[in-house]
């Protein structure tokens, strides 16, 4: 199966889940803890992400990060107050757990569709069989950096999840020759810029 076919299937499942999700369909900043009855697709995804250990990994990361947790829409668990500085993101998802250093009410004031973006990532974990998701995601992030100088703009996973929904800009592609010249210039300047003055 080609990547485009896979993501079309993921998008269809995600859309069916949201359509059947009751008042979990479009949470606002004041009612993100309200969730409707989970659809069959959401229950399947939740079970799959438990079996593939990605949701358990997300709960562990949330616990280590000192987060408080609440149930959210789309069958997600929302974890607020993450205390570490990595990864650098307004929010990130592991399995069915969405983690942020902020509050989801504040984030949704700026990005009303953020949780829809993160739910699509939870489907990506499901289709990538859990934690192996990190391998293609890291490769896609490197490709995006190479082509645009940004980790999300040409990252196929972020594009499928919705760049604007996640607060990412859609940047133009930089020709590879120009990127190579920039990289060579950085390498030439690196010893000098890396020196420390005594």
How many E-type strands? 4
Major sheet:
4 strands, mixed
Poorly predicted tracts of residues: 1-34, 194-198
Distance between the termini: 58 Å
Q: Helical region count?
A: 8
User: How do the strands line up in the largest sheet?
Assistant: 1-2-4-3
Q: Structural class, please?
A: alpha+beta
Rg from Cα: 19 Å
Overall shape: elongated
As a percent range, the share of helical residues equals: 40-55%
Mean pLDDT: 83
How would you describe this protein?
With 198 residues, the protein is of the alpha+beta class. It has 8 helices and 4 strands; from the N terminus they run αααββββααααα. The protein has a domain at 3-129. Strands 1-2-4-3 form a 4-stranded mixed β-sheet, with helices on both faces. A hairpin with a 2-residue loop joins β3 (92-94) and β4 (97-99).
Helices, strands, pairings?
Elements: H1 3-19, H2 40-51, H3 54-64, E1 68-71, E2 77-80, E3 92-94, E4 97-99, H4 104-110, H5 114-127, H6 134-148, H7 156-161, H8 176-194
Parallel strand pairs: 2-4
Antiparallel strand pairs: 1-2, 3-4
Helix pairs in contact: 1-5, 2-5
Name its key features.
single chain; 198 residues; alpha+beta; four-stranded mixed sheet; 8 helices; elongated; disordered N terminus; disordered C terminus; membrane; transmembrane; transmembrane helix; DUF4157 domain-containing protein
Task: Summarize the entry for a quick read.
The protein has helices at 3-19, 40-51, 54-64, 104-110, 114-127, 134-148, 156-161, 176-194; strands spanning 68-71, 77-80, 92-94, 97-99. It is of the alpha+beta class and 198 residues long.
């Amino acid at each position: 199966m080609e990547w485009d076919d896979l993501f079309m299937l993921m998008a269809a499942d995600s859309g069916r889940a949201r359509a059947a999700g009751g008042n979990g369909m479009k949470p606002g900043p004041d009612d993100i803890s309200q969730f409707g009855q989970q659809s069959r697709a959401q229950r399947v995804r939740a079970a799959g992400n438990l079996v593939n250990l990605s949701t358990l990994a997300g709960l562990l990361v949330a616990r280590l990060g000192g987060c408080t947790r609440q149930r959210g829409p789309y069958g997600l668990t929302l974890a607020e107050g993450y205390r570490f500085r990595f990864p650098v993101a307004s929010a990130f998802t592991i399995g069915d757990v969405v983690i942020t250093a902020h509050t989801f009410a504040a984030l949704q004031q700026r990005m009303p569709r953020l949780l829809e973006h993160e739910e699509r990532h939870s489907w990506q974990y499901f289709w990538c069989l859990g934690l192996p998701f990190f391998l293609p995601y890291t490769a896609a992030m490197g490709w995006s950096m190479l082509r645009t100088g940004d980790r999300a703009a040409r990252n196929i996973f972020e594009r499928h999840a919705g760049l604007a929904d996640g607060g990412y800009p859609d940047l133009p592609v930089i020709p590879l020759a120009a990127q190579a010249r920039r990289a060579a210039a950085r390498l030439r300047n690196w010893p000098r810029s890396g020196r420390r003055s005594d």
